[in-house]
Amino acid sequence: MAVKAARAAFNNPAWRDLSSTARGDLMFKLSALAEQHSHLLATVETWDNGKAFSSAQGDVDEVVGTLKYYAGFADKIHGQTIETSPAKFAYTLREPVGVCGQIIPWNYPLAMAAWKLGPALACGNTVVLKAAESTPLSILVFANLIKEAGFPPGVINIINGHGREAGAALIQHPDVDKVAFTGSTATGREIMKMASQTLKTITLETGGKSPLLVFADADLDNAVYWAHKGIMANQGQICTATSRILVHDSLFDAFLDRFVAYIPTVSRLGDPFVPGTTQGPQVSQAQYDRVLAYVQIGKQEGARLVCGGEPFMSSGYFIQPTVFTEVTEEMRIYREEVFGPFVVLVRFTSDEEALRLANGTEYGLGAALFTSHLSKAHRMARAIQSGMVWINSSNDSDYRVPFGGVKQSGIGRELGEAGLAAYSNIKAVHVNLRV
Ligand code: ADP
């Protein structure tokens, strides 16, 4: 029913023939409504996900900004004129792809919805968006605002349901033209397979095991600050989390001491609605169990648990910030994505070794590097295999800047002008002037 409604809306003159500026106006209106209802949206997001209320407020700000950013693009998407010969020329049209199936994860439900809706709507598509089963509510509240903004019926359809049922049905539907997914690499693989049946275009934003490199000439306090943010924010449930900290041998002990001492001063676990809380519970029992299972795996593999590794409080899915050292490249805790407040520290002795370690995983999402050596920073930024690099920082994300991965961290880009590419087809029109 949702796909049918999206198809009908795609062919409805009320949407299809709407001027691009008017399309942008609807998006500006939606952005303004999200801003107006930000307290409600953030409250429901915290209930749904367990993240600190202040973080949820930041997520809603991102929704407002992302929709506004792409609203501005709606009437600036156009083709080119291409001179070929005196007798002929060609021009291109940017056409919407059609009905887009969008599957979003539970770690940033509203923000991920905005990342996907923004470019899809700016380009004139219609959408069926499926929320994650563990965070079904905030998007339903948001759906009321879509109606209130005045989008023609069927342009945006929100569905809830389990991945293997609702998600799989959406991706396999023959009348869906494009699929966009954010989630785990394993699910991304399944989605790619299912989308191949009707050759749907796909964008995937999947997992990571992003490195954070601390070189010998790094500003140590700055590196500690960002290393903490890069893995402990959002309960560690971030695909770009810098979950492997690689530190030059000469600094390793000093870094470890400061990092471990810093954690209790900034990680405040507890009720996400209490002001000052920075870390809420993991999103679900499954994620809680998964992170604690990786603690056991780390111990069994012979790594050293420096701090954390235990639940916090007797109820709720709280996990103490967890740090492992004496970790080797073969260990699962070094290679596999844990998706929790869980980090491993490893030493390196040369730039070559740092680069080899940084690139030595199947993933390539983000990478952070800390150095005061200007040209080394930029050399490394080029050499690291990842979609994003943070110099003397970690996990910056901005709707004006492209976001995405290489290797098994994804296909395509979201955000920025680059995020529009996935949502329109280019049609070439050849014109003969010799008549
Ligand atoms: P996690 O394993 O961390 O919960 P997933 O990648 O499985 O993350 O989930 C992200 C999104 O993908 C959710 O909306 C989920 O419902 C959906 N999903 C999961 N499995 C499938 C599937 N087989 N087909 C389509 N969507 C799926």
Automatic annotation (TrEMBL):
Catalytic residues in the record: E205
PANTHER family: 2-AMINOMUCONIC SEMIALDEHYDE DEHYDROGENASE
Entries under PROSITE patterns matching the protein: ALDEHYDE_DEHYDR_GLU
Protein family (similarity comment): Belongs to the aldehyde dehydrogenase family.
Protein's GO biological process: polyamine catabolic process
Record-given protein name: Aldehyde dehydrogenase domain-containing protein
Residue ranges of domain Aldehyde dehydrogenase in the record: 2-429
Gene3D superfamilies found in the cross-reference section: Aldehyde Dehydrogenase, Chain A, domain 1 (3.40.605.10), Aldehyde Dehydrogenase, Chain A, domain 2 (3.40.309.10)
InterPro entries hit by this protein: Ald_DH/histidinol_DH, Ald_DH_C, Ald_DH_CS_GLU, Ald_DH_N, Aldehyde_DH_dom
Keywords for the protein's UniProt record, in alphabetical order: NAD, Oxidoreductase
GO molecular function list: aldehyde dehydrogenase (NAD+) activity
